[in-house]
Amino acid sequence: TTTADIVWETDEKARFTYISPQVEVILGYRQEDLIGRVVFDFLAPDSVEGNREAFREAVRENHRIMGHDSEWMHQSGTIVILESRAIPKIRPDGTLAGFRGIDRDITQRKRVEEALLESEERFRILLQDIPSVAVQGYRMDGTTHYWNRASEILYGYSQEEAIGKNLVDLIIPS
Question: CA 53, 59, 102 angle in degrees (round to 5)?
Fold first, then answer.
């Protein structure tokens, strides 16, 4: 079977017991570089503690890991963001043997999301400070989700009063 994702297994101590060849494409390491090593050795420093806690909780509760994002260190030193999904491996006696999972590279998606948020923030700041143009934003149901300063002056409602209200309720008094 071929997949663009990294398929892996660990023991109960978070040591890799298997990792697919795709690890070399995504993280730059050979399979043998990771086998027997602890997962946390390959995480970005800021990502280690949160991942240790998520692993401890999964071990305590023997539960699945679904959609957990982690920053990993590529062999070149760059950050790669992986989304993990895993299930516990249980021995016949009911004890935890480790985890089996799959990691997807979501680095590009995260960069696009961050760029979009930055762009939206710049646009919001620009619209907020236009003194002579009233700008509002509305959801599909007609409720207000954006209200700039010029709208406050024109309609007499503050942002706090307008956000979440229906446009008709704001411009046509009851």
Answer: 85
CA 142 from centre of chain: 29
Provide the residue count of the chain: 174
Q: Which residues pair with 144 in a beta bridge?
A: 138
For residue 66, which phi and psi values (nearest 5 degrees)? Answer: -125, 120
- Closest residue by Cα to residue 39 from 77, 67, 6, 2: 6
CA 42 to CA 12: how far, in whole Å? 17
Please give the pLDDT value at position 61.
79
Q: How far apart are CA 126 and CA 135, in angstroms?
A: 11
Q: How confident is the model at residue 173 (pLDDT cuts 50, 70, 90)?
A: low
Residues 145 and 165: their CA atoms lie apart, in Å, by 8
Predicted local distance difference test score (pLDDT) of residue 101:
94
- The residues facing 87 across adjacent strands are 100
CA distance 148 to 50: 38
Helix (H) or strand (E) holding 11: strand 6-11
Asked if residue 174 has pLDDT above 70, the reply is: no
